Structures are given as structure tokens and as C-alpha cells.
Amino acid sequence: MASLKEIKTRIGSVKGTSKVTSAMKMVSSAKLHKAQGLINAMLPYQRSLDNIVSNFLSGETPFKSPYVLQEGQQSRLENSLQIPAGSQKVAIIVFSSNSSLCGPFNYNVIREFTSLILDLKTEMVPDEAIEVYAIGKKVEDAVKKMEFKPVTSLNAAGSSESTFSFQSLAAKPDYKNIFKLADHILKQYASGVYSKVYVIYQHFKSAGVQKVQRQLYLPLEISAYKKQQTASSDGWLNNYIVEPSVSEVIEALLPQLLKQKLYTCLTDSYASEHAARTIAMQVATDNAEDLIQELTVLYNKSRQQAITSELLDIVAGSVQ
What we know:
Elements: H1 4-57, H2 76-79, E1 89-95, H3 105-122, E2 130-135, H4 137-145, E3 153-155, E4 163-165, H5 166-171, H6 175-190, E5 194-206, E6 209-218, H7 246-319
Parallel strand pairs: 1-2, 1-5
Antiparallel strand pairs: 3-4, 5-6
Helix pairs in contact: 1-7, 6-7
């Protein structure tokens, strides 16, 4: 059995750990509240943009966009068999956190990334044709261990002064910088550098539920935005007279839709991280309190046993 001094030292150590986990829980809870505010502020704009795009696409107006796979057209990945090796790549944008102690948050993201890599290998995509945009230190480290060279920063304006690290995006969602990254991805795709672009992130459903998502970012699947036109509540169909033309408006809206989608993934990941850390630190604090109670009982038992042993020695000495 451990000595009284060892048990007392361990109780002090667990109390110190409990204070740290409790503080981390309060910090993550505050950041989660802020992240929920970002999501609530973004949702009306996101829904309005989706509704506008859906109304225009439901009209079956022909348009051309480098970000949409037209009907009857083969995917660039399928056409890459006739393209010299290395001329087209598959880009993967992965969102994680910069620090640990957030439960299975990073593990689930890395596991989904590994699953996607295996799926791409079955499609005969070599590792050299995969480019990873690692947003977050944890996924950056994991990607390096898998012998990939992740993109970890972006020089958006062509000068060293405008360079920003992707770790800064994971630490704090930045609307301007994520739009710069999205603009870079769109240009690379439109110019034929990338055949497909995937995004992996944790979707924030609630403070207690987060689910990892793997989505095809490019080419854009417009079938999800098309809907059958029906009369509105006032009896009118959404048939608009548009200047200069519907096709030009759609072509201008699609890049904005894609940029907004990437910002949504960033805010979702940020909120999911702090929701997962809040829960993890709450569990750790509760476990620490339970352990303190157990150690306190053990300390009292050991102390009582030591006192009883001393009394027996005194009584035995007096009898002699």
C-alpha cells in the first residue's frame, strides 16, 4: 500500500489537473459560444444565396461554368488517362485543430482522410497526384507522417507580406483569408491543375453532436440545388426578368457559392472543435473529482490504519 505522503502528493497532483481541465472547459465553452454566433450570423446569408441559386438553376437556363460538370461530359479524372502524368492533381482540403485534448475530433478527421486516400488509390490516383491543404497543426503532422507534403500557407497576392498560415485559420476563422484560399482553389481548378477537389471537416450539429463529413467540393454538383418550381404563397412563380441575363448571373453566383461553402466548413470545424473539447474537459474534470474522492477515502483509511497500529504498539508495550 502507498504511503500517506505518496497518497497526499497524488491528491494534490489530481487537484491541479482538475483546475487545468476546468479552466480549459470554460475557455472552450466561451469560444464555442462565439463560434455559434458566427454560424448564426452566417446562416441567413447562406440560405438566401442557396435560395437564389436554386431559383435560377430550376429554370433550366443553359450556362457555362468551369466549376460545374455539364451533362454528358466526362469527369476530368476520367479524362486524365489521356493527359500526361502529373498534369492534373486531386486536391484535398482537410480541417482539424492546432491542439489536442478535444476527444476524438482530430482522430475522426484523420481517419476519414486516410479512407479517402485509400479510395483514390483504388481509382489509380498516385500519391504524387494528391495535393493536401492541411488547415490545422494536427492534420498537418498526420499528413507529413503519411509522407505527403501538405500545403500549409498561401501567398494570395503574390508578395511575402500577404502570406498567411493555415494554422491561423484553424485558431480563428478569418472570412477574408478563407476566401483567398477558395479563390486560389477555384483558379487552380479552372486552369486544369486539379481534376477534383475534396473537403473533409467536422459538421457541427449541436454542442453534443459533431459528425465528420467528406464532400466533393469541385466539380460542383448542381443537382442538389435544383428544385421543381412551384407557386409561392402569394400565387406567383419565381420567374424573374434578369439583367444582363440569367446565365451570366448564374456564372457570377457560383464562385460566390463555392467560397461561402468553404467558409461554412471552416466555421463548422471551429465550432465542432470547441464543442468536443468542452465535453472532453468536462468528462476529465468529473473523472478527476471522482479520483480525488477515492484517494481521499484511501488516505483516511491508511491514516486510520497507521493510528491503530501505533495504539496497538503502545498497548502491547505497556502490558510488557
